[in-house]
Amino acid sequence: MKSILLVLIVGCLSCLSLQAQKKCHISAEIQGFTGGDMIYFDFMEKDGINQEFPYKENQLMEFDVELDDITMMKINAWVIICLEPGDNIHAKVTYVGNRYDAVEYTGTPRAVVVADYLHKVRALRAERKYKTNIPAMMVLLYDAKEHYTATLKEWQDEIAMLDEIKGEISPRMYNYLLSEMEATLLTNLISYPYACSSYQKKKLEDCMADGYWGALDNYRLRDDEASLRNRPYMGFLGTYKNYELGKKAHEKSETYTPAKNMEDEYGSIVAFYDGTLRDAALFVFLYNQVAGNKDFATVEKLKKDYLKKYNKNKEYKKILADVMK
Asked: Distance between CA 214 and CA 71 in Å, rounded?
């Protein structure tokens, strides 16, 4: 099995929204930053509203945006905030050099609760020295079996942290945050043994902890709109499919070989998933083929099949049409 490279989808990716478009007011003050001359506010699921400001110590930066659904915003990539339509948020960020050290939030209570949760997750991972970047882990020669155990604990503890705020946030936000967390941790859980085996020239079984093939026995993918709004979770669908197919092969004492060409991988997704999960998985797959400059004629043929038989979310159709112009 090869780990799936998650290609983050560029441009507008907004699922059909259940919420009306509402204004959000965003502001921030930053001190101690020495990592550059600009402060960037980047929105993950909303195209065309990113903002940037020249950095000045403790300067008030503020702006309004219109949102129609849950949107993740990153300040200089690492300060992460999730907003719903109508939320207001103010972030007071303290840096030590180019690394942010502390942050205080004020604003709409639900938005503050979510932002505080995301900061606590980051702090917990930092305290435990838990790494999420697989290439970096390979270079640092992280032990795959130890990382597997650490990931299971991190998954359990971060779910518990999210459950603590469940009553203070919307069900949609809960599912979105759960998907964001699981896309990161479960991708690591599944993929790192293969990356470790390849990079360190070890036998695969020497990189797999006991219980690897049973780790997700009770796990069920979510197909609700909020979960599938999260881009990393959409990308995780391909990783999960290969893991499950690899598990079935393992149970038969066989070796799973991933599809070697575009058409076979497309067929594998069609056979494995159905409904909205299939729609999302096929969309990500086709988009990634275009982004990777793969055989355009084959992509076009598969896109026509997808739109005719499996497409449910019309926003996916629009995005594919735009990127293939």
From this structure: 33
Among residues 226, 313, 242, 319, which one has the least CA distance to residue 275? 313
Phi and psi at 292, nearest 5°, equal -90, 10
Residue 282 amino acid letter? L
Q: How many residues does the chain have?
A: 325
**Strands 22-33 vs 88-97: parallel, antiparallel or unpaired:** parallel
CA 320/CA 325 separation, integer angstroms: 9
Cross-strand pairs, 51: 41
210 is written with which tokens?
């006991």
What's the token pair of residue 29?
A: 């003050």
Mean of the per-residue pLDDT values for the chain? 92
Residue 277: φ, ψ to 5°: -65, -40
Backbone CA torsion sign across 147, 153, 156, 160: negative
Q: Output the pTM of the full model.
A: 0.91
